[in-house]
Amino acid sequence: METKGKKSFNYYMRLLHRNVGFFLIGFVVIYSLSGIVLIYRDTDLLKKEKKIITELPAGLKSNEIGSALKIRDFKALKTEGNMIYYQGGSYNSITGKAEYTVNELVFPFNKITGLHKTASNNTLHWFTLAFGIALLFMAISSLLMYKTASHTFRVGILTAIAGIIIGVILLSV
Fold it and tell me: Which domain holds residue 58?
């Protein structure tokens, strides 16, 4: 039994879990929306066409154009004189002028999807690292909110185990 003035570890864990959870609501909404949009990155959902004109070195071979433009799965479709045509664009091998269209996400999704792809050399990686640690804290602290002898704790452990098992099954599919 607790004394009136002294609070238990579980009390402080519930308090911290609640306050961190409320703080993270906005971040979770942004992160989940961007994750949902990324599921459909191979479609034109929420995308608009953008025409790009750039100068490349003249005289590139058709197999060099894709890497110069950073286009994955690049494939030249046809060559007519000094023009090389590929999906969505063309390259003039004499002038080095390349024109092509890309489909980009509309604002604000073009900004928030970058959170999922932040590299360690980007200053935003500190935000995504802190967010990941905060989510890990939320998962672990949810197990520490109740006394280990309580029914709620036992149900929480069983639910967590079920979630882990389903997660492992999904990863192995």
Answer: 47-105
